[in-house]
Amino acid sequence: MPRKLRLPGAVDPRWSEIPDACVCAALRMLSRYASRRLDRVLAGHGLTLTEFQLMLTLWEEGPARVLVLARRLRLDPGPTGRSLARLEQRGV
Question: Which of 16, 25, 65, 81 is an S-S bond match for 21, by CB 3.0 to 4.6 Å?
Answer without folding.
Answer: 25
